[in-house]
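Please produce the structure of this protein holding fe (ii) ion.
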Amino acid sequence: MILYLGWGIGLEKKRQVRNSSSKCGCGYRNAVSSYVECVRELACKILELIAQGVGVPPTSFSRLLNSFDSDSLLRLNHYPPVTHTAAIGFGEHSDPQILTLLRSNGVPGLQISLGNDTWLPVDPDPLAFCVNIGDLLQAMTNGRFVSVRHRAMANTLHDRSRLSLVFFGGPSPEAIITCPPQLLKQNQPRYRAFTWAEYKSHTYAHRLGETRLDHFKIA
Ligand SMILES: O=C(O)CCC(=O)C(=O)O
Ligand SMILES: [Fe+2]
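Below is the modeled complex.
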């Protein structure tokens, strides 16, 4: 079972939340807002390093998370203990956004696909972030960075629930997703340009496990 909590956090909305929460003194709201602000900044730093690594202007990717109507999301997944083994808690997929920063409470479950039905368990260190490349970053790097397929196994530790707190860094719905020209010098673009709104509606119209980026491939 998965408890799903969505938290859309455009920068403007976040400012409003911060202002109103300081007045009402709501501890939970403050904690979530500060957490989101910190992970967004961390995601931007990672994206700037990636941009540097592939030789494009440093804010090529991070500016999308910094835009005032960035469609980022914070999700809390809850996996109560189950008695049967080898059950899937969250099926195989890649995250559609740009970059994902995931933390868990130290209970194992997350696995990364190595292909050919081989799965690598991720160490559930509660002090570490698991950073996943999302589909949009794959498109914007013309396939140099590949969005990772992953899944979460159901939790068979009978005395503890598993929790994962996942920040998905996404652009504004109108943002045009395309590869910077510096990355295309000798290569043809692999994906046609599309908006995040277009990608999202394609994503939600298809099954979780599908390789959704294939739809935007240039033949
Ligand atoms: O709970 C996990 O470890 C994985 C969750 C996940 O992949 C997601 O929420 O997209
Ligand atoms: Fe995921």
